[in-house]
Amino acid sequence: MSERTTVLLAGQTAVITGAAQGIGLTIAETFVAHGARVVIGDLDEVRVKAAVEHLGGAGVAAGAVCDVRSAADLAALLDLATGEEPPHVMVNNAGITRDATMRRMTEEQFDEVIDINLKGTWLGMKAAAERMREAGRGSIVNLSSLSGKVGMAGQTNYSAAKAGVVGMTKAAAKELAHTGVRVNAVQPGLIRTPMTEAMPRKAWDQKMSEIPMGRPGEPVEVATGVLFLASALSSYMTGTVQEITGGRFM
């Protein structure tokens, strides 16, 4: 970073779930670049260790295997981030898709997406808030999706979960505002990742046609949106939903 760049999270500790790869890892990279120590959780132990080294090693990063469906795992992850004081930032990023039409979707596919994307976010908020409110400060950022705003065919499970994340964010923000803890959400649209680029060309072109800016987003553009909500730049914002979509479905 240049000397003229503002370091937004200097001396702060941030916990990020689902951060051993993809957008979560990009969020961790962005936070480290802005002076934070990060603690990442993910299901894949090998990837967690590799991500910690990639981020700069023990001086700036730590990690643990974490299943966000487990309150015990999340508590352990947050304890790893707690030194003399509780973590300053919690990013509930972990999520999965199990796409299928409602006709073909199984109850298992529905339940798994709800458990990880919705209940996992609730458990992460709950665990973080318990620690942050004691310090009288903190920022929680939840990852929703444009699918939670408009609903996407083949994603009744995912759309329900991500819409639920918005409702939970607003409810939690109202509960925690008086404690000094802020809760906000981001809703990414089409972001360029290996997963999205692997979709059929027809599907990709259809989605691109819906984006006024005429291009997909990059992971770092989601990460900087999360950084804004995590930092003091958004100090008078809580209960908000930030769309990072290129104008799609505005």
UniProtKB/TrEMBL annotation:
The keyword Oxidoreductase applies. The keyword Oxidoreductase applies. Residues 12-191 form the Ketoreductase domain. Keywords: Oxidoreductase. InterPro entries: KR_dom, NAD(P)-bd_dom_sf, Sc_DH/Rdtase_CS, SDR_fam. Its EC number is 1.1.1.100. Signal peptide: none annotated. SUPFAM superfamilies: NAD(P)-binding Rossmann-fold domains. GO terms for molecular function: 3-oxoacyl-[acyl-carrier-protein] reductase (NADPH) activity. SMART domains: PKS_KR. It comes from the Bacteria. PANTHER family: 3-OXOACYL-[ACYL-CARRIER-PROTEIN] REDUCTASE, CHLOROPLASTIC, SHORT-CHAIN DEHYDROGENASES/REDUCTASES FAMILY MEMBER. Belongs to the short-chain dehydrogenases/reductases (SDR) family. This is 3-oxoacyl-ACP reductase FabG. It comes from Amycolatopsis rhabdoformis.
